[in-house]
Amino acid sequence: MPPIASDYGTLGLILLVTLLGVLFWYAFMAAVAATIDDPNSSTRTLLLFVPMLPLGVAFALFRKADSALAQVLGVFPLTSMAVLPLRLVLTTVAWWEVPLALVLLAAAAWACRRMAGRIFGTAMLMHGKEPSLREMVRWMRQS
Predict the structure, then answer these.
(1) In terms of C-beta density within 10 A (0-12 exposed, 13-18 middle, 19 or more buried), how is residue 90 classed?
(2) Which helix (H) or strand (E) holds 84?
(3) How much is the pLDDT for 21?
(4) Which of 86, 84, 66, 97 is nearest to 21 (CA)?
(5) Which end of the chain is more exposed for a tag (fewer CB within 10 A), N or C?
(6) Cα 28 to the center of its chain, rounded Å
């Protein structure tokens, strides 16, 4: 492994990607949590484990950090938080991949935060039942 502690630029990029990824996934979890009426009987609590999937993908790509799949997943907003830092440490990344991944991840975090706010605002007015996926999509469109 390269000595990342001495490369402040790479370390800063990894921290920025991680921060944006955390913001994205926290907004996702807030949207899911807002739709859960009773956490003891809800089946939606399983959705709170979805943010662990990108980490599994990153571990699977550990030996294939140069592959085309790793390049695509390093830019894709749902997995870039875990895959792009792996690629930055293990291989050479094209100059355009990092800015593209940062812009897409920031846009996805902003969009997820807006959708989570809309879902939360409407879900707080509902009592007694958990909304369906169709109802949540309708709330996002109407807000």
Answers:
(1) middle
(2) helix 80-90
(3) 95
(4) 84
(5) N
(6) 8
The full length of the chain comes to 143
Ordered DSSP codes for 101-141: HHHHHHHHHHHHHHHHHHHHHHHTT--SSPPPHHHHHHHHH
Tokens of 64: 């294939």
What angle is formed at CA 46 by the lines to CA 55 and CA 63, rounded to 5 degrees?
Answer: 15
Residues 6 or more apart whose Cβ sits within 8 Å of residue 42: 36, 130
Its pTM stands at 0.81
Phi, psi at 40, each rounded to 5° = -75, -25
Report how far residue 113's alpha carbon sits from residue 30's, in angstroms, rounded to the nearest whole number: 9
- The whole-angstrom separation of Cα 6 and Cα 39 is 45
Q: Consecutive 10-residue runs of the chain (143 residues): their mean pLDDT?
A: 68 92 92 79 78 90 91 94 91 92 96 88 74 81 73
